[in-house]
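dude i think i finally got it to work??
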Amino acid sequence: MVVNRTVHAGDIVLDAGAGTGSTGILAAQKTGSSGSVTFFDLSHEMLAAAKKKIAKEHPDAPTSFETGDMCQLPFPDNHFDVALSTYSLCPLYDPAKAALEMYRVVKPGGRVGIAHSTDPTSPAIKWLADRVEDIAWKIPSISMGCRSVDVAPALEQAGGKIVLHTMIGIPLWPFKILIVEKPGG
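look at this
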């Protein structure tokens, strides 16, 4: 959903927190040969997996791979048409700072697309989810360090226009989808 609502043919895309490349590969399919995708992740191992996947599925796709901290993106202001982050903000030490970095590197008129964990809206379901997560947090391979975050206020305060803000998934573990446009395009 995030890729379909943000990426167009010819776009220059950043997949921040790319992991094994699933989102970036979808973006590469949409940008075509006239666009490009930069896969960015803290983990060299994850990027190695992403490189293998893209080489197998889209060997001709214009791509690049860089490692680093999402809270300090090494790209100039207004560089990308689109910045994406799917399920990679929730484990960060400062999710709002990372979202603002994504916003910084997007050109005026560009889009930031984010999907991340959020809390259930029902108090009873939230209580149940919290009890399950109390156990899951003790097993890092299950929790993967994710927690509910809300970066929409920071992006709005920076001047972003929220064009989609919705929840998907099952009631016990919903995900928030957020698409923000940077004015001035």
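Residues 108 and 184 are 5 Å apart (CA to CA).
im so relieved honestly
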